Amino acid sequence: MALSAHLQELSEKHRQLERRIEEETLRPGSDDLAIRRLKQEKLKLKDEILRLEITRH
Fold first, then answer.
1. pTM value?
2. Chain-centre distance of CA 37, in angstroms?
């Protein structure tokens, strides 16, 4: 897979996680543990995106 395509895929996953976090936060009786896990996953994706962008340049 080309690096740019991989970056786009990771960025889309990052956006999807952001939406899931927002939806979970707005849901009555939201699960704080689930939100924390989603945020951790989102942060890992962000770190991976940044790492790949740095190596690309």
1. 0.87
2. 11
